[in-house]
Amino acid sequence: MIKNIFQSRKYSGLCVLSILLVSVTILLLTNDTIDLFPYLSLSYLRRSSLSDIPAFTPISSPTNDSSSPPESPVNLTRVEDHPIDQGLELDWIKDDKEWNVSLSVDWKRCESPDYIPCLDNTKAIKKLKSKRNMEHRERHCPEPSPKCLVPLPKRYKVPLPWPQSRDMIWYDNAPHPKLVQYKKDQNWIRKSGPFFVFPGGGTQFKDGVIHYINFIQKTLPVLEWGKKVRVVLDVGCGVASFGGTLLDKNVITMSFAPKDEHEAQIQFALERGIPATLAVIGTQKLPFPDNAYDVIHCARCRVHWHGYGGRPLLELNRILRPGGFFVWSATPVYQHDEGHRNVWKTMESLTTSMCWKIVARTRFTKVGFVIYQKPDSDSCYESHKKNDPPLCNEEETKKNSSWYAPLLTCVPKVPAGLTGKWPTGWPKRLTDRPVSLLTEQSNEESFKEDTKLWSGIISDIYLNGLAINWTKIHNVMDMNAGYGGFAAALINRPLWVMNVIPVEGEDTLSTIFDRGLIGIYHDWCESFNTYPRSYDLLHSSFLLTNLSQRCDLLEVVVEIDRIVRPGGYLVVQDTVEMLKKLNPILLSLRWSTNVYRGKFLVGSKSSWRP
């Protein structure tokens, strides 16, 4: 009898053990166990296996000459497949088949994780007759636009948050070590464990950018960083430490450089969270309006200002605000060998012919340093006996004339009267009547309405109703910026906005610069000049309906997918018809989508690649 009891208990125990094993197996195979057993679900195991680098605790700030990363614990996290907070109730109707059907597309991968279609068109570049004036660094867009999806770099991770990202980024997100060796004596960038670290040095400021910026202010106190001067252009910016540091002084800098042998410098800038774009002063105008920037800066930026008939310097004159300053620190300013003396003489001749005057000339450590000022009227130029270069005619300086347009060989007239005055000091400049609208009463009313409208939409809907994690948002692009009301409404948040003005629409980019914001011209039927995974959020307000009349919506969405980081967002305000066309394309890309009030589509990019 005792034997039978033991046998029955034995079989009962085996039965219970079998049930437990089956239960655990079911738990492991379902994703619904995350809340109850976060360390047992396969989705957790998949995520944790990707984060295979041990936690690294930085120990000191890279703003000095130390190569160690800044002090702050870092979480090594991977992108999530569906980062939208599904707990918030939006308008999405899960049973509506018309909305939820994914478009059937056989997606293919692009070859390179850093693919930029209009700058990597090797077939077109090989056919160029000349590369003497940087033609090979200009835009050469493939036709038709590519529909491949850019792969992620191996071991790609969620970028570090701002402001930590300004001083360090993950090596694996931009694994290009060439600059570490190439600029090792100039403190641009260093490799430290799993990070790239940015000590704040540069070609002309090896001892630190903060000291350099303060020196500029001391040399010319009228600059008043963050008050009189708000919008700056940094030519040949390197890794954008100059612009990144100026953010602390309420100055926003558009840093730009070409995609050249200085490997991935703009990619580093954007990964750091610093405004930047890919561009070159070659044979075409920069995609900015006339009279835009308060200050233009060049620290040994390798642009031959005197070359190509002086056109590069004439381009600076075009985009520099009347009364604005050109800060040039470079060897020709004070070097005494014959080559540098000839360059300086040529610069003297060119700047004199444009009526620029030298307001400061000195040395920064061992570097020659000069500051020019552009005139705020044509009186000096009109007094010249010989007008060489000549004044431009109206056709050469009309609005929306900076897209695929050749460099000027003339000097634009300085805006007369109210439109030529300097904007009010920052931050009043953001909300005051822009100087470019001072003579246009109807546009002023539109500007006021636009500012009021976006202030309400941002506070009532975008910040609280769209299931967007704004704490992770820093690099933002407004694809159809209008007067910049979207960016202005977000001004108190720790982020920056690239305001894009489509070339086929109304040209309001001058107004955006007048407000103390930055922006750029672009045609969304083509690829944008930026690296993949550059932005946390793209915003489109009533752009796509009109755009789809000119170009393939699928190609536009592929470009959006290229630009947005995994875990990042697309916010679209448009017609219901357009949202119904857009949603299936996003679903085919494995984006998470939702709709609010039937007007706002929010998409969040996953880490999926074909």
Instruction: Tell me the strand order in the biggest sheet.
Output: 6-5-4-7-8-10-9
| Beta-strand content bin | 15-25%
Number of strands: 17
Distance between the termini: 65 Å
Which structural class fits the helix and strand makeup?
A: alpha/beta
The helicity comes to: 25-40%
Tell me about the biggest sheet?
7 strands, mixed
Q: Output the radius of gyration.
A: 27 Å
Shape: globular
Overall residue-averaged pLDDT value: 84
Keywords: Glycoprotein, Membrane, Methyltransferase, Signal-anchor, Transferase, Transmembrane, Transmembrane helix
Enzyme class: transferase
Organism: Cardamine amara subsp. amara
GO cellular component, one term: membrane
Explain how this protein is built.
This protein has helices spanning 2-29, 42-50, 97-100, 122-126, 164-167, 178-182, 209-219, 241-246, 265-272, 311-319, 338-353, 379-382, 428-431, 441-462, 485-489, 509-514, 544-547, 553-563, 576-588; strands at 168-170, 190-192, 195-197, 231-235, 252-257, 276-278, 293-299, 320-329, 357-364, 367-373, 475-478, 496-502, 519-522, 535-541, 564-573, 592-596, 600-604. It is 29% helix and 16% strand. The model is unreliable at 1-11 and 26-89 (pLDDT under 50). The protein is an alpha/beta fold. It is built from 19 helices and 17 strands. The strands form 3 sheets. A 7-stranded mixed sheet has the order 6-5-4-7-8-10-9. It has a 7-stranded mixed sheet with strand order 13-12-11-14-15-17-16.
